[in-house]
Amino acid sequence: MADKKEEGRNKNSSANSATVKKVWQYLKHYRLYLILSIALATVVVVFQLYIPILIGDAVDCILGPNEVRFEGEGGLFSIMKTMIVVIGVAAVCQWIMNICNNKITYNTIRDVRTQAFEKIEILPLKYIDGHSYGEIVSRVIADVDQFADGLLMGFTQFFTGVMTIACTLLFMLSVNVTITLVVVVVTPVSLLVAGFIAKKTYTMFHLQSETRGEQTALIDEMVGNQKVVQAFGHEDEALFKFDEINARLADCSLKAIFYSSITNPATRFVNNLVYTGVGFVGALYAVAGGISVGQLTCFLSYANQYTKPFNEISGVVTELQNALACAARIFELIEEEPQTPEKEAAVVFEEPDGRVKLSDVNFSYVPDKLLITDFNLKVEKGQRVAIVGPTGCGKTTLINLLMRFYDVNSGTIEMGAANEKLKLANGNIMRVSEGAMTDIRNMTRESLRTSYGMVLQETWLREGTIRDNIVMGKPDATDEEVLNAAKASHAHSFIKRLPKGYDTIINEEGGSLSQGQKQLLCITRVMLSLPPMLILDEATSSIDTRTEHYIQRAFAKMMNGRTSFIVAHRLSTIQEADVILVMKDGNVIEQGNHESLLKENGFYAELYNSQFAG
Amino acid sequence: MWKLLRYLKDYKKETALAPLFKMLEASFELLVPLVMAAIIDVGIAKGDSPYIIKMCLVMIALGIIGLVCSITAQFFSAKAAVGFSTKLRRALFAHIESLSFSEMDKLGTSTLITRMTSDINQAQSGVNLVLRLFLRSPFIVIGAMVMAFTVDVKAAMIFVVTIPLLCIVVFGVMFISIPLYKKVQAGLDKVLGITRENLTGVRVIRAFAKEDEELEYFKENNEELTRLQMFVGRISSLMNPITYVIINAATVALIYQGALRVNVGDLTQGEVVALVNYMSQILVELVKLANLIITVTKAIACGNRIQTVFDMKPSFVREDFAKLVENGGHDGKSSKDKFDKLIKAADSSPYILEFDNVGLTYKDSKEEALTDINIKVKSGETIGVIGGTGSGKSSLVHMIPRFYDATRGEVRFHGVNVKELPLEELRNHIGIVMQKAVLFKGSIAENLRWGKQDATEEEMWEALKVSQAEEFVKTKEGQLEFEIAQGGKNLSGGQRQRMTIARAVVKKPEILIMDDSASALDYATDLKLRQAVAGMKQKITTFIVSQRASSIKDADRIVVLDDGLICGYGTHDELLDNCEIYKEIYDSQFKKKEVREVR
User: Fold this and answer.
1) How far away is chain A from the Cα of B428, in angstroms, using its nearest Cα?
2) Using the beta-carbon criterion (under 8 Å), do A454 and B207 form an inter-chain contact?
3) Are residues A329 and A359 in the same domain?
4) Which of residues 276-315 of A touch B (CB under 8 A)?
5) Is the ipTM of this complex over 0.85?
6) How far apart (Å, rounded) are the C-alpha atoms in residues B383 and B404?
7) Digit-coded pLDDT (tens) for B196-234
């Protein structure tokens, strides 16, 4: 058991040192500031601790009536002069040190965030789909803050804390050894007391957070489903249950808060004991002539200060560990494998003619669970491909592959070009034979993706004006072009009724726009850039009939003459499609046109009969 | 926030005693430097060791009394703060439970949950800290000055100058930086927003190949955030050095002044030491006070947010529940009597339900969601409601159990305006199955008892049979005792829907409303369900809201809604002939050719 713990600790510390090394990669840009900061911290600590000695010396000059020594070496005036200089230097040093620390902290935060964001832009979708947005966001935002604050502040505090303890000890020893021993022996008692209380309160806090969790769950359930609660007149029972948990919470909260709030008075009491102890021993020494009153004063103020860094350091250690854990999480993101980099001689695919060919495609999201097996499909210019299947059958998988959001495991996806000369990313020109097709992995992602216009079911709008959202695919579009696109997609009529028309600002969730209106905006976006090929999800479940009608018309207009892949829900779309892909459990199980599939009397026929034939 | 303090009123004693004991502790703390001065002036100067021992014992005694006072204070303040939050939490929960749908729509549930949890916790720690520190810190600052005056008036003048100076610096830096910190927070929110956007919209961004521009945009905002942080950092990094200079300069002045006074014999060496000690006590407390103010500002903001929920008055009150919240109990009999009396008095009506020229305008909306609704329903009829999304189907049926009240016209139950009937009794007569199938943590039986508290097993099985849930419940381990996870996560969508239907059916309601509640059921189950409901022993009036024409086409009458207006009302065959919209919906779902064959 003990061995295991030890082993774990070793593992931890080696992981930690790896993290620290990575942190250093960021910090080293600011190493001058770092060195300066450490040097200044040393000066500040030494000078701040020197002040009590000076005060002690000054007190020794003030013995009694007509016994005050103002002038001369070691006189009051010279001491005061020294004090003013020391105070001034310490303050200035502290200020510069603070500024240095700010610079290091905030610049590091900025650097780390930018790196993390850069990584997000090139992460494979596999990673993004596999992690909740909240989790990634909290790494980029909260973890980075915690890491920089905790690590740098923690480090400075730790450093100054250790410095203070060491210097205080030295200064004290230089004055009187016995009294120093009193301080050194009694002070740890306050740490013990604090630790003892913390241990005792831990169970209380644990119980409190458990009860809180229980209560939150109840609130979540009852308030979250208030409509049902009210419909069944369940408010009374809900309140009874709430009262019961609330009473328990009150009980354990009181204990947790009370016991933990004993910590401060208790440590203060111990500090008082230290103070008294120093006063007692010091006074006896002074009576015996061992030290002067000034030196005693100096000791008293050291005794007051001595415990503080101990308390701080114990807090800092947990904070440092926490910061390292945060740092590790960020680095995990930053070091995540990016998508396969583009080939240097990748094709800038500018003129697709609309042919798409999938040969022997195998694909899986998880290594051992093959989803799409040996899939073949040939789409000619201007054909419509309908993808049908029950909800959750993985219709997006195909879109993921066509857009190269995911790479196929084996097999190829190729597209045909209208031109025999293909431009390469390195500036060269490649000639291909007529009708030849290009593997999408040999194209630049940008050119591949901009070949398609994509309207997904989940509408995505960004914070900004309506116009900003529309011109996304064509930033240099003129007002007239925007207007025409909006008219073509039937979005114009609602946009012009918005308070500021095309300049109305909408937020990420689309604010006051209805689902249908958001969808129309997304269609307008594609309408404006009008790429040669389309990927459409016509799911219209949350849209009223009238808007749906508009959307259908807009879709029809766009599809005219363009190769389109449609996740189809409407019978008419399916029937008119040139190729119907029937998907189930992530895999394409049938393929053909309406008539041939019905004749096959397989899954499609079943689906068709249950859904459409009533 | 201040209104919330009424929840402290049962803890008057604690609220008063906590700061009092805190002050006692502080007073003893203030005595320590004087004792030390006495040790120096009397004990050391005269070499009186017994005196030194005595004085040290006095100091220890002071420490012990201080400890006892302080612990007592902590206890009272913890008790008051916890009591406050407990009462507040209960009141808020009860208040939220009594809010009607319109208010809930406006506030949103996630907000309410935050108010109930983290906001109240913040308010609690605010109260706790205020009770503990708000008197103590100023008391020590002022106390130190007063003590200085008792030692020496001239030297004390230095305190009079120093304290306001320190206050200006500490609070000045605080007040300047707080609004700036808000700006930093806004900047951080922006950076967070961009990050989120890039994750949620990753497909669109990549489809438009916008990665580079997004990165630029992010860098710009990140840079701006860094700039803001540096700026605030520069200001707040001034605080420590400046306060340090002020305190120590004051100490130098004290020593000088002290030296002059000692020289002429007005002051002793020990008293100078005491003055220096007082000076150092001040700074610590001022910094504590500044932190306290930050916590309190936060707590007040939370308190205000909580108060806005209390300010939201429910549009109608459930009398029984109000009584329960006040007194802890009700018999439910009075409202039943009232209900029966009202229904009896209006016995004449041949209809179980009437919509008479009803209009509904949602709060904060200009246009009516429903206009000129006139429907009369006889007991035992089945009414289908169909129409596009946003046409007002749900709004229509939600007015029956008064989830929303008609803003024009009247909805009558047995001839009585529903607004006059006691809410809880009215809802007892109506079973509703909502669009979203919500189940609660607990056994199947417990969930069914939501419908009828004293339902027997037999009644439950009967309801499950009607809702076509019997079969799957029988396969579950423990059957009726099968534990449903929170939100019903361990059941499939279709199973959840059937459970919610059973929950409404077990009530044996007079009116059963199914609001698009069979969407996850396949066609055959949907049909069986409707047949089972129709075949129930008790005569039930049923409202079926659906987007599926097949679900409602056999209803006695069908209401076709379009944009809040009734555009068709009649049987399936009548509507096919005279309602264009109904025909359109029907045709889009039933392939024309086959429809002809069926007919």
Assistant:
1) 7
2) yes
3) no
4) 276, 279-280, 283-284, 286-287, 293, 296-297, 300-301, 304
5) no
6) 20
7) 888 888 888 888 888 888 899 999 999 999 999 889 888
Backbone φ, ψ for residue B17 (5° rounding): -70, -35
**A447: closest CA among A352, A369, A375, A555?**
A352
B430-508: CATH topology is: Rossmann fold (3.40.50)
Domain locations in chain B as residue ranges: 1-151+301-315, 430-508
Contact A109 B104 (CB under 8 A): no
Closest chain A residue to B321, measured at CA? A236
Tokens of B570: 């009649």
CATH code of B1-151+301-315, in short, is 1.20.1560.10
Q: Look up the domain containing A50 and give its range.
A: 10-173+312-339
Could you tell me which of A365, A370, A377 has the C-alpha nearest to residue A130?
A365
**pLDDT, tens only, B252-266:** 998 888 888 888 888
On whether residue A289 sits in a domain, the answer given is no
Q: Does B256 lie at the interface with A, CB-CB under 8 angstroms?
A: yes
Q: How many independent structural domains does chain A possess?
A: 2
CA neighbor of B451 nearest in space, from B512, B504, B515: B504
Q: Give chain B's residues under pLDDT 50.
A: 592-599
Question: In this structure, are A526 and A595 located in the same domain?
Answer: yes
A468 CB near a chain B CB, below 8 Å? Answer: no
Whether A316 and A394 share a structural domain: no
Distance CA B497, CA B518 (A): 7
Query: Which amino acid type is present at position B572?
Result: H
For residue B523, what are the CA distances in angstroms to A149, B339, B574? Answer: 59, 39, 24
The answer to whether residue B75 neighbours chain A at the CB level (below 8 Å) is: yes
User: Smallest CA–CA separation between B268 and chain A, in Å?
Assistant: 6
Q: Is B74 on the interface with A (CB under 8 A)?
A: yes
Choose the closest CB to A232 out of B81, B450, B590.
B450
| Cα-based angle A38, A41, A47 (whole degrees, multiple of 5) | 145
A49, A298 in Cβ contact below 8 A?
no
pLDDT in tens, B375-423: 888 888 888 888 766 677 778 888 888 888 888 888 888 777 877 777 7
Report the predicted TM-score, pTM, of the whole model to 2 decimal places: 0.71
Closest in B32, B56, B249 to A280, CB measured: B56
d(CA A209, CA B83): 17
Residue in A with minimal Cα distance to B197: A462
Of B566, B542, B564, the residue nearest B554 (C-alpha): B542
The answer to whether the CB atoms of B104 and A125 lie below 8 A apart is no
Q: Where do the DSSP E strands lie in B139-245?
A: none
Question: Cβ–Cβ of B226/A102 closer than 8 Å?
Answer: no
B526 has a chain A CB within 8 A of its CB: no
Average pLDDT, chain A: 81
